[in-house]
Design brief:
By secondary structure, the chain is α/β, with parallel strands linked by helices. The protein is about 45% helix and about 15% strand. It has helices at about 5-25, 45-55, 65-85, 100-115, 130-135, 155-165, 185-195, 270-285, 285-305, 335-345, 355, 365-370, 375, 390-410, and strands at about 35, 90-95, 120-125, 145, 170, 200-205, 225-230, 240-245, 310-315, 325-330, 345-350, 380-385. The longest helix has 24 residues, at about 5-25. It is globular.
């Protein structure tokens, strides 16, 4: 008797029925523009080709036959290309399957290795894969402190300095915020920490910084940094953690080791092949791609804000903002409703990070920068890429204007 199948199939079948009905509702559209790069990125065609080749030719990277050596060479290539883009020779690169895993390894792995210090400090707008692992350590007696930020998302350096003390184990501040694109002054953060106590470890979630701003770890004395393949137009299923020489971590997962000691299980060689190729392409075209993304970003912001009233840009402007990031709030227009309406029109955005969007709670990032709930609930997050063009952005702007006006027309009028 297929008990498991009988128990699960009715609910799964019902869910699939609803999903297929939703897909049929979308129908055909004039154009499709994918701007939800925060939650699942576009992939360079060359990176996809590299994945296919790895599937065809690579074996388990710890086995000493020819396919195994090919697989191991893919791992070395990914490490070499990542080191070029962050300009660092020493330390270790640990490959994981996502940026979330890299963040967890950095925070929990360090806490296990150095349990004598019990305080973790991070900014109020960190990704939940930093916030939640840190909070989980409270069960083991650790204390967590959130650094307040201003209306643009920049950490308050004076209050940050006051939070650092002799019991502080780790400080974690993202180089670039994933939702509002704030580019933090990491150099100033590191100087404050190391002046107070050189033994405090500084970690940065660099998933949204890689390929957007120059990262020079030969000059920036960061101790650990996390990365994600899909954020740099590689495939999902690959991430990495850089740790400076001398930083001790304990494994947080256990099992058969492959070519790495801190992350068990076989490496996702095809995903790493795509990651390696994406890094190579970004390093070769860095300045041109950054300028293209910035131009498209500004075109998208200007197009929406100049044509509609009640529109707010969340986060900083200009060079203080990541070149790809657009986060807009629309009064009298709920963000999730706008996400659905735009999807029906072939423009794919999100109402925030996938970590929070499905529970329909306002983004903790927007609340932390002081946005009231009615503005935070009306936000959508979009990101430009090297694969977009001006026609994509023009179409997206047209559809945003029409969608916002339609939703607002359906909203009940205020009674004065």
């Amino acid at each position: 008797m297929r008990r498991g199948s009988e128990r699960l199939s009715p609910s799964i079948a019902e869910q699939r029925k609803h999903v297929k009905a939703l897909l049929r509702l979308h129908g055909e559209v004039e154009r499709e523009v994918y701007l939800d790069l925060e939650n699942s990125g576009l992939i360079f065609p060359e990176a996809l080709d590299a994945m296919f080749e790895a599937y065809r030719s690579c074996g388990h990277p710890s086995i000493t036959h020819k396919p195994g050596w090919r697989g191991y060479d893919v791992i070395l290539e990914a490490e070499e290309n990542l080191r070029k883009l962050i300009n660092v020779d020493g330390g270790d690169i640990v490959f994981t399957h996502s940026g979330t895993e890299a963040n967890n390894l950095a925070i929990i792995g360090l806490a296990k290795a150095k349990p004598s210090r019990k305080k973790i400090v991070y900014s109020a707008i960190e990704h939940l894969s930093v916030k939640f692992p840190a909070e989980s350590l409270q069960e083991l007696g650790f204390k967590v402190e959130e650094i307040p930020v201003n209306e643009e998302g920049f950490v308050n350096l004076d209050k940050f300095s006051d939070l650092i003390d002799k019991d502080t184990l780790l400080v974690s501040i993202a180089a670039v915020n994933h939702e509002i694109g704030t580019i933090q002054d990491l150099k100033a953060v590191i100087e404050i920490v190391k002046d107070k106590d050189p033994e405090i470890i500084v970690h940065t979630d660099a998933c949204d910084a890689l390929g957007r701003i120059r990262l020079d770890f030969s000059k920036l004395e960061v101790d650990m940094a996390s990365f994600s393949s899909h954020k740099v137009y590689g495939p999902r299923g690959a991430g990495a953690l850089y740790k400076r020489e001398g930083i001790e971590l304990k494994p947080i997962l256990h099992g058969q080791l492959s070519s790495q000691t801190l992350w068990p299980g076989v490496e996702n060689v095809p995903a790493l092949a795509g990651f390696a190729k994406a890094l190579e392409i970004l390093e070769r075209n860095f300045d041109a791609y950054r300028e293209k993304m910035r131009k498209l970003r500004d075109m998208l912001i200007e197009g929406a804000t100049s044509s509609l009233d009640g529109v707010f840009l969340n986060g900083p402007k200009g060079d203080k903002r990541a070149p790809d990031n657009v986060n807009l709030s629309f009064l009298r227009c709920e963000g999730e409703a706008l996400t659905v309406e735009l999807s029906l029109r072939g423009v794919y955005v999100s109402s925030g990070s996938a970590c929070t969007s499905r529970i329909l709670e306002p983004s903790h990032v927007l609340i932390s920068i002081g946005r009231p709930y009615e503005i935070a609930h009306g936000s959508i997050l979009m990101k430009t890429s090297p694969m977009h063009d001006e026609e994509d952005i023009r179409y997206a702007v047209e559809q945003i204007i029409e969608a916002v006006n339609r939703i607002r027309s359906l909203a009940p009028r205020e009674v004065k």
